[in-house]
Specification:
homodimer; about 230 residues; alpha+beta; Glutaredoxin; 2 domains; four-stranded mixed sheet; globular; Thioredoxin-like_sf (chains A, B); Glutathione_S-Trfase (chains A, B); Glutathione S-transferase (chains A, B)
């Protein structure tokens, strides 16, 4: 069994867990506090970022998009119509664009700030940046959520799945991200019906179940978080 | 001929130009001001980020890592020992990790801030964020440069090329980034001899020449910028 260094409130880690889940492969999970900069973890990934996969032979594979490509090359290409990547270059480029959208753009404009201020800071020692939440950062992130939901709603309303006719990495990257914002009660689903229908389909998949059981200390999820009929 | 929307002071754009240059393929270049959010450009890439390649059939391929994968799939795989990617999955994962290091981590900790404050702001209307440079942002970015140079120096001192025995995308991503910092006179080469030797090898390549001719209005490059014997 391969090992994944992850955090339940890290969107990129959730994306990787969903990908392995869809391929029916279990992972040994090691929870890593991303702010702690643990020495043994920095030896695996000097950038200190999550997720890191220990692949065959305990070789560290660093970063969600790098892991996704590795998983496709070593597993996905054999999955035929269950492959989470397109068969053609242009289709793969669209999937990669959307993975970057959620794991880089949404992350840097929304997710990272809300998770840091609302989830991490209360557990961080002040020497590592802990303290009271920065309400201006929370306000800015909340203002940015709207355009990301609107874009997701547009994609979900004009395509079968976010990147085209088949479920792909793009859906898992989006779902990994939105599921964290949903845990935090930050999503207005009523305003975004197509996104909601799409999320409901993803949420019902067996691979999603472990994510719905994730809990973080001191912060309960929104009431509808684990509800398949939300 | 394919078209690339780029900016001469955007590291990710330089990386893509180097990759096409190494494969001996000319690009039509269209300079895009990343802060302008031009409507026609947003239609190609709603994220508004650079670079964007118009591939065969004018399909937009968005983002440096997405373009790099596309170029490898459509060109690189045929290049044998000139391929800028490894032949095996673990080798490709290491190249991708280093591309992310320079184009995501160095970008967000160093390059983006120095370019915004020193290059873009004087040309930006105040309605789009222009104004006088933020000296605290410049100071923070300069403090961060050191560890990125030190890491590059370590890689260059322990391997033939940054990701292993062959020149790869990793070298081009690093060179695209460092060449911008070098234009701005921000690099202390004397302290980083192995990185300097590596950069000197990259800088002498024919694919690098167009970058050495890049100039931005109102800001001359450091005296040694285009000097192959710096």
């Amino acid at each position: 069994m391969l090992t994944l260094f992850h955090h339940p409130m890290n969107a990129a880690s959730r994306f990787v867990r969903l990908a392995f889940g869809e391929y029916g492969e279990e992972l040994e999970l090691i929870e890593e506090k991303p702010w702690a900069r643990r020495k043994e973890f920095l030896a695996l990934n000097p950038a200190g970022t999550l997720p890191v996969l220990l692949a065959e032979g305990d070789v560290p594979i660093v970063g969600a998009n790098v892991i996704a490509e590795y998983v496709d090359e070593t597993r996905g290409v054999l999955k035929r119509d269950k492959r989470l990547f397109a068969e053609d270059s242009i289709g793969r480029a669209e999937i990669r664009r959307l993975c970057d959208w959620y794991l880089v753009k949404t992350e840097s404009e929304v997710t990272r700030h809300l998770v840091r201020e609302r989830v991490f800071k209360p557990h961080m020692p002040s020497s590592q940046g802990g303290g009271s939440p920065d309400s201006a950062a929370i306000r800015a992130a909340r203002a940015n959520i709207k355009q990301h939901l609107k874009y997701t709603n547009w994609l979900a309303g004009t395509r079968d799945w976010l990147a085209g006719t088949r479920m792909s990495y793009a859906d898992l990257a989006a779902a990994g991200t939105l599921s964290i914002l949903d845990y935090l009660g930050e999503i207005d689903w009523a305003e975004n019906g197509a996104a909601r229908d799409w999320y409901s389909r993803i949420k019902s998949r067996p691979a999603f179940r472990p994510l719905l059981n994730d809990r973080v200390r001191g912060l309960s999820p929104a009431a509808h978080y684990a509800n398949l009929d939300f």
